[in-house]
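#help-structures

NK: newbie question. if I give both the sequence and a SMILES, will the prediction place the ligand too? trying with zinc ion
OV: yes, paste both and it writes out the complex. here, I ran yours:
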Amino acid sequence: MRLPPETEVIAPVTDTDIDRAAALVGGARRLVVLTGAGISTESGIPDFRSPGGLWTRYDPRKLTFDRFCASAETRRLYWEMGNDLFPALRDAHPNTAHRVLAALERRGGLLRIITQNVDGLHQKAGSSPEAMIEIHGTALEVGCLTCGARQDRGPVQARFAAGEHDLRCDCGGLLKPATISFGQAMPERETVQAFADAAAADVFLVVGSSLEVYPAAGLPRAAVESGAALVIVNREPTPYDDDAEAALHGSSGETLGAIAARLGLAITDA
Ligand SMILES: [Zn+2]
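OV: that's the protein plus ligand as structure tokens.
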């Protein structure tokens, strides 16, 4: 009997699912991983797009890149939002899923971790900067829109809190958190590299992404079209589940923890 849609249940992750995913991930020689908001919600970082998330409290249409450049009032609002957001990101701890991915890099066979997140938790878990592509930038740094100089965000956010409301670089350029804003071009070098890595992957693992936001959502397509096996770990079904060798609908931490246990992978505390 078919269940009516509103009571449709998502099948739990089975031992067979874990075995299949572990065999693929463990056997990969060029593993490429894509991570999204779902891997960091388990570190207490809310999905900005979820109900009650950042973009339901601040109107993203008022915080586009063009407005940021054009309006001192928008910049003030943007940095004010940072007062809310930055301490939570700065103080967050990686969870089991981040640590398993760092362990996979140490073990060998991992080509890249491409993340849609701006929280820096992969690096806190021990992933090397060389293995990372932060396709939406990082909220832990600030960049100058004129000279491109980067610096840690903490001291800049502190300047705002102390009353400096239009933050400028030594060169006079506008300072902006080093994230990709609405209406801002994706970083070209990182995007090109991410698609090249996806095409080079033999196994492409998605963790905690609903695969709905482009261009990141195009990466599993590029991987599958180049012959990679696709493995998806996400609480909810995704549009790519039918293309996947294994689609596991569960918690990122528990599921990756179970895969790591099958592989005998040592997970160290960050
Ligand atoms: Zn500058």
